[in-house]
Amino acid sequence: MLEPLLQLFYPRLCLACQRQPLQRQQRALCTSCQYKIKPTNYHLFEENPVAERFWGRLPISRASTAYHFVKGGILQRLIHELKYGHRPEIGEELGRSYGRLLAEEPFWKSVDYIIPVPLHPKKRHQRGYNQAARWASGLSESLGVPWSEKFLLRASYTESQTRKSREERFANVSDAFVLRQADKLRHKHIMLVDDVMTTGATIEACAKHLLKAQISLSVVCIALAP
Ligand SMILES: [Zn+2]
Fold first, then answer.
1. Gene3D superfamilies from the entry (predicted)?
2. 31: CA distance to ligand 1 center in Å?
3. Ligand 1 centroid, distance to 30 Cα (angstroms)
4. How many angstroms does the Cα of residue 123 sit away from the middle of ligand 1?
5. pLDDT digit string (tens) for 140-180?
6. What is the mean pLDDT of the chain?
């Protein structure tokens, strides 16, 4: 009773356009915005532009970024809100949507654990949540695979990555992670997830630690930065 009343006076608005009121069953996006976010379908192919980035760098089974990133587009706005606008539900909703696509493919059903790239505790405290973990949680819900933050942790604070070259970034982040309880991951299929992939240096640094547990590794991010 209360919810329809609240909706009447304070309609929940679409998080992307911030104009359209959301229908009851819609959690974050209106129908028109939902249609404007285009899945890449990279998860259907072993060879794709994201997987290619890791060739010769990492032994990865499959890699995908979920949606096409268009400068100034809806997805860019959503990711900005997810990271800086205190909207964790955006990560969850994108994860649920993409998880439904992954669940249609037998390969992705073989994932044992979803592990998000950890955020430094200080940053997590400021933001209130780890956006990669919210994405992991949405994927987990649709895929029916558990996610966990207990295995991969952030060890030390890294300076802002934005003004560094690829080599500098890599040197900077490679020692920033710690793997715990590696024995529980042994021989499992792990899906490492993050929000936006830029150079892939953070993924590489995390993967280096995870691969010590003799796992098979796949990577799924929300989008690939142009
Ligand atoms: Zn909208």
1. 3.40.50.2020
2. 7
3. 4
4. 29
5. 999 999 999 999 999 865 555 555 566 555 555 667 899 99
6. 89
Taking the centre of ligand 1 as the mean of its atom positions, its distance from the CA of residue 109, in whole angstroms, is 31
Kindly tell me the burial class for residue 66, based on how many C-beta atoms sit within 10 Å of its own C-beta (0-12, 13-18, 19 or more). Answer: buried
pLDDT at 95 over 90: yes
Q: Are 185 and 156 in contact (CB under 8 A)?
A: no
Write the CATH number for 209. Answer: 3.40.50
pLDDT for the residue 167: 58
> Mapping DSSP to helix (H, G, I), strand (E, B) and coil, where does residue 224 land?
strand
Give the SS3 label for residue 133: helix
- Asked if residue 5 belongs to a domain, the reply is no
33 occurs within a structural domain: no
Q: Is residue 156 part of a domain?
A: yes
Distance (angstroms) between ligand 1 centre and the Cα of 129 equals 24
Rounded to an integer, what distance in angstroms lies between the CA atom of residue 210 and that of residue 129? 22
Task: State in Å: Cα 205 to ligand 1 middle.
Answer: 36
Q: Is the pLDDT of residue 1 over 80?
A: no
Cβ contact 61:45 at 8 Å = no
Strands, sheet with 113-116, edge to edge from the N-terminal-most edge strand? 62-67, 216-224, 189-197, 113-116
- Residue 189 in any domain: the answer is yes
Tally of domains within the chain: 1
Domain that holds residue 188: 38-224
CA of 85 to the centre of ligand 1 (A): 16
